[in-house]
TrEMBL record:
This is Heme chaperone HemW. It comes from the Bacteria. Keywords: 4Fe-4S, Chaperone, Cytoplasm, Heme, Iron, Iron-sulfur, Metal-binding, S-adenosyl-L-methionine. One of its GO terms (cellular component) is cytoplasm. CDD domains: Radical_SAM. Its main location: cytoplasm. InterPro entries: Coproporphyrinogen-III_oxidase, Elp3/MiaA/NifB-like_rSAM, HemW-like, rSAM, rSAM_horseshoe, rSAM_sf.
Amino acid sequence: MKLFEISLYLHIPFCDSKCGYCAFNSQINKNHLKTIYMETLARYVSYKIHNLLEENQNLQITSVYIGGGTPNSVKSRAYSSLFAEFSPYLAPQAEISIEANPNSLSLEWLQTLQSLGVNRLSLGAQSFEDSKLIFLERHHRKDSIFYAIEMALKAGLKNLSIDLIYGTPLCNASLLTQELETACALPLSHLSAYQLSIDEGSRFYANKESLGNLRDFEGEFEGFLSMGHFIKSYLQTKGFKQYEVSNYAKTSPSYHNLRYWEGKEYLGIGAGAVGFQGGVRTSMPKSIEKFLSGFYEEKEILSTHNQLLEHLFLGFRSCVGVERKRIPNTRNLKILLEENKVKQDGERIYAKDYFLGDEIALFVG
Ligand SMILES: C[S@@+](CC[C@H](N)C(=O)[O-])C[C@H]1O[C@@H](n2cnc3c(N)ncnc32)[C@H](O)[C@@H]1O
Ligand code: SF4
């Protein structure tokens, strides 16, 4: 019987405090809803899995990503029933990631999650410079990051990743070098470096005039094309290979991330969670209360054109690449090949510089 493989994204929409830059679907002061939320999440996971089983008896979940919000703002014991629902269907080597905020992370929480099956931790470090953490309106300080990594190792978690943010007014070459040096001295297998974006819905967006012109940080930087290129070059010397515009891996890329960018199917469950199945994008209500009031997901059938655009953008931003036969503007593709901006390997075309991925996608799309 044919194997049906799928990934699972689970959203935990709770945070202890809201960072200035963040427009993610996360809420503070909703502690009273945490227990019922986790019970409901487990029920919806069971419902979705059983729906799938009706059509595909041979179901295998190849990766799970529990993101937020702040998953460690929910007590570890609240995760048991959730794991009980999907664990029987996990592939033998399934990657099970969870995000955590160094603030309020405990050894007990990490140990319990590890014993439930988590084998990859993504820590929201953001910076190793306290003044930058204060600028970002984070509540943790750099020492908590070291402590969190120590605890993760103690809990038996070896596949460790951190998130860093760059492009703040405090970022200069010496600060970034110091931060990257610190990061690379830690036992990490993966690192995400995100350029600060001022997103609608965040406090930074509401006060954007007071932040000055962050576009100043987008151009040439220390002889590199951009701050991102500077970071990429440093990380390369330490054995971190860029596999997507913001993602670097020492050994292998995150399997779950790759599945998104390859356009593979995944279930998205939780308040505001997005999924993709059979050419249909599903999204659950963003409001926690609405999510709790009954299973509902909006469905958007992606047109062939939109699926193609997605393939071009995700592919050129990452090591996934793009199928040559799907590229509409072959005349522009020829120009890019001649200019050495893209390369061909087999039947696929890859951007040579993922930071130029969006421009390339627009040029050949
Ligand atoms: C949903 S958060 C999960 C981690 C956890 N909540 C924490 O912050 O510690 C995922 C990551 O997205 C990044 N991020 C969120 N908003 C961003 C923004 N406006 N600009 C750049 N990076 C952002 C941060 O690096 C953050 O760690
Ligand atoms: S960055 Fe993370 S901790 Fe901060 S508000 Fe967003 S989800 Fe919460």
